[in-house]
Amino acid sequence: MNGSSFMRPAVILLFVAALAAAPFAVNQGLLFLIGIAMLQAMFALSWNLMFRYAGLASFGHAMFYGIGGYAVAAIIFHGFPLPFLLAILLSTAIGAVVAFVVALIVLQRAAGIQLAVLTLALSQLVLLFVSYTDFLGRDDGLSGLARPVLDFGFFTLDLRSPTAFYYFIMVAFALVTAGLLWFVSGRFGRVLLAVRIDSERAAFLGVDVRRKRIFVFTLAGAIASFAGALAAPWAQIISTDSMSWFNSAQPMLATLLGGAGSYWGPVIGAFGLILVNYFTRTFVGLSEFMVGGILLFVVLLAPSGIAGFFEMLRRMRNRTRTASAREHNQ
Amino acid sequence: MSVLVAKGIRKTYGSLEVLKGVDLSVGAGETFAIIGPNGAGKTTLFKVLTGEVSAQGGSVSFDGKDVTRLPAFVRARMGFGRTFQVARVFGELSIFTNVVLAIEARKVNGGESCGRWWDWRPSADTSDEARSLLESVGLGRQGDEEAGLLSHGDKKRLEFAVTLAGKPRILMLDEPTAGMSAADRKSTTNLLRDLKAKGITIIMTEHDMDVIFDLADRLMVLNYGAVVSQGDPVTVREDEMVKQVYLGKGVGHA
Ligand SMILES: Nc1ncnc2c1ncn2[C@@H]1O[C@H](COP(=O)(O)OP(=O)(O)OP(=O)(O)O)[C@@H](O)[C@H]1O
Ligand SMILES: [Mg+2]
After folding, report:
1. Is B35 in the same domain as B109?
2. Chain B interface includes A188 (CB < 8 A)
3. Residue with more model confidence, B108 or B142
4. What is the tally of structural domains in chain A?
5. d(CA B28, nearest CA chain A) in Å
6. DSSP secondary structure string, B117-185?
7. What spacing in Å lies between the alpha carbon of B16 and ligand 1's midpoint?
8. Does a structural domain hold residue B84?
9. Of A80, A189, A283, B155, which cross-links B87 as Cys (Cβ 3.0–4.6 Å)?
10. Has residue A3 been placed in a domain?
11. Which carries the bigger pLDDT value, residue A293 or residue B31?
12. Which one of B167, B183, B202 terminates a domain?
């Protein structure tokens, strides 16, 4: 038995406790950023779901984040009489449907670099479409979005309070993270890993590779839309930035930084990026410089990211431990 | 009755004609061996039969059904099981998980339950089956090791267990003993003989003639993508054409 089987639950518990304590410990600005970090972490997890478990590198994933955001923003902005939870659900569903259609078309043949280029091009097309649509506020987007009050009959949840909304996001983040972890740890996750490692070999086990990939792409699109749908009312604004190539790069950077080989890598990376941005906010350009520098460092010295780096340390420690135990026995 | 029938298979890579109209018919429970010098087209023929690549001409039928246009995964579900000349295992996963994957895929495709839907671990049934399969190929003790770290011969054995986990009706083995030690070769041959006794249909290529003469009911010799000779092993061995193909090498050491 190695140390990490005790360490991991402890670290996760500590992380959850820190998130829960944040509203009492930090100022409004930082609280807002931690909320964004959780949403970006979900976004990054969904990207790595495709990357790690199906071998699909999408370069246009922000398309779905933006679709979810715009859907919910339009409902709020134009005052459609739809309860907030249903609006979130509907936005997620729209993202899932679009992702499914994109997957049907794009995954027909494309993989690797073709997939990257196609998804990037599609996301730019959607962005262009949005920037010409009056209903969606053209280039300016939709701003001044009112945060909702959830009415459950027997009690109400007033999300106009930043703390309440923060906890709302935290619960969503916990549910998505736990649900996804359960999903990838099970039978389906095993099959997906096989598809990514050697899709041809997996086919000879009777696995319908294309169908699995379409499913994963759709699920990832749905989760990204869900994150986007929460981000719009949290920030009270949505603009085409949400679907820009820059935002598409965020989950990739987070995954690279945190480590694609670990489930928690994208979460670590997303929080890391937000922290770098926060601590360098007063120096224009410093955050890009820092992010660039850190990434260079990670790629050169810890190619499997922060999570991979800790894993490597653990293995090294175990190895020295078994080696010294062996010496001891002799 | 024939289980697998191929007619007039033609396959070209660019201007290279790798298979020049190959016919073959394998009966139920038969062990059918394909031999031939390097580059004869044996692996390519396997790929066409299993659906990994499509041929320019000809047809393949399985159990009387035309499968020529069916993709590999559908053929696998119909009962094709194959191993590769260079064993392909899921290297990042544990040995145990490799086999579990195959068992679970078979169960799902056969409409069987894989245990409680919310339980992320393999069911007790699946685990037991995986362990006994690993036991049968002599990898019983190493389940937790990463498959990618196995020796070449052990990878072959693992791949064999993975393929058997699919309970195939026809086993297609591309050089099952290539790169194995003499002892491993012996145990693989024994394993194959047991499977043969159970009535499973086997198609194999092999360079080791001892293995071939030990197991094969029928033998086909391929050279430059054409069938040179076909029949029971003893007759084929005496065939003048075959001796010419293997000239200087001696049939026993081809
Ligand atoms: N993907 C490919 N593209 C081009 N040529 C190929 C390809 N695959 C095989 N070939 C060629 O087809 C011919 C037959 O190859 P094949 O692998 O089927 O032979 P083989 O009988 O299995 O040989 P060996 O005994 O060495 O395994 C060879 O000349 C090979 O170079
Ligand atoms: Mg070959």
Report:
1. no
2. no
3. B108
4. 1
5. 21
6. TT--SPPHHHHHHHHHHHHHTT-GGGTTSBGGGS-HHHHHHHHHHHHHHT--SEEEEESTTTT--HHHH
7. 10
8. no
9. B155
10. no
11. B31
12. B167
